[in-house]
Amino acid sequence: MHTLYIKQRIFKITDNYPIKDDQGKVCYQVDQDFKLIGDKIHVTDPHGDEVFTVKRKLIRLFPTYSVEFADGQSLKVRSQLSLMRRKVKVSSDDFQLKVRGNLIDHKFTVSESGNEIGTIRKKLISIGDSFEIQVKDPNYEQVLVAITIAIDNLMDREDDEEDED
């Protein structure tokens, strides 16, 4: 098991930030296109090679994201309606994952067939958004990073909608 950390800036027009391991080494770089154009997020490795992109699908009943990996694989991340808990379904041709989270403490458990493969935790007291990703199955590291980015985008959009009310 290992841990990855995301620390974002407070004021941002677009999301641009590194994802680091527990030694402080940059593992991924996240760069989001300007939000008026659309939500397309590029994730690269430390050498600048694209690892995957996350794109928000427009005109959906529930927020849906498509993830396209550099190796040609893809997956969908879809928010589902639930009381007091956030549910996210992750599906690909190879697997189905369940993401369950508590709205109060912002901790999410990711599992496949009942086996936990990782956890995602948003720190509540932090300057800027901060996430901790515990990777229990290294085969799913990139998938866990993609899910975290989608969940962050979902929470940002919900916060924006609450601010408009």
The largest pleated sheet is described as: 12 strands, antiparallel, barrel
Radius of gyration over alpha carbons? 15 Å
- CA-CA gap between termini: 42 Å
Molecular shape: globular
SSE string:
EEEEEEEEEEEEH
Structural class: mainly beta
Low-confidence stretches are 160-165
Strands, count: 12
| Main sheet strand line-up | 1-2-3-4-5-6-7-8-9-10-11-12
Q: Number of helical runs?
A: 1
Proportion of β residues? over 45%
CATH topological fold name: Porin
Summed over residues and divided by their number, the pLDDT gives a mean of: 85
The CATH class name reads: Mainly Beta
DSSP helix fraction: 10-25%
* Overall tally of domains: 1
Protein model, in words:
- With 165 residues, the chain is mainly beta.
- It has a single domain, classed as Porin (Beta Barrel), CATH 2.40.160.
- It is 15% helix and 48% strand.
- It has one helix and twelve strands, in the order ββββββββββββα.
- The protein has one helix at 141-164, and strands spanning 2-7, 16-21, 26-32, 40-44, 50-57, 64-69, 74-80, 85-92, 96-102, 107-112, 115-122, 130-135.
- A twelve-stranded antiparallel barrel has the order 1-2-3-4-5-6-7-8-9-10-11-12.
- Strand 3 and strand 4 form a beta hairpin.
- It is globular, with a radius of gyration of 15 Å.
- 25% of the residues are buried.
- Mean pLDDT is 85; it is low at 160-165.
